[in-house]
Design a protein that fits this description.
4 helices, 2 strands
């Protein structure tokens, strides 16, 4: 049996949970970075995206990530950053990456994008 979105109910539930977790992490990180995330909760349970604000958020997150070797910051920020880069790509946006990050982030983004729903 499939849910309204055409996916098995368990998959749809996982997508909702991962989306809610991402939105919560982005909200907290935006507060830490002292700028808006560009994500606004909507009535359907997802988020509306302000492309310019979201791009600024991802860019600041990447700059913060790149400015330190602190594993305490890198650990939690890495997954959020990769997911944000995939979402930014899907919104037809991008940010410049430092040459030493381009290959690794491109590979990791591609792998993550394949596993992310495109509802």
């Amino acid at each position: 049996m499939y849910g309204r979105c055409g996916f098995p109910p368990r998959f749809a539930c996982d997508v909702r949970h991962s989306g809610r977790l991402y939105a919560s992490l982005a909200r907290g990180t935006a507060e830490f970075l002292e700028l808006p995330s560009g994500l606004t909760p909507n009535a359907q349970g997802g988020c509306d995206v302000d492309p310019m604000a979201f791009r600024s958020f991802v860019e600041r997150l990447y700059r913060t990530y790149s400015a330190t070797d602190n594993e305490l910051l890198h650990g939690p920020a890495h997954g959020l950053l990769l997911t944000s880069l995939v979402l930014l790509d899907r919104a037809e946006g991008s940010i410049p990456l430092r040459p030493e990050h381009e290959d690794a982030f491109t590979r990791e983004k591609a792998a993550l994008a394949r596993s992310m729903a495109t509802l």
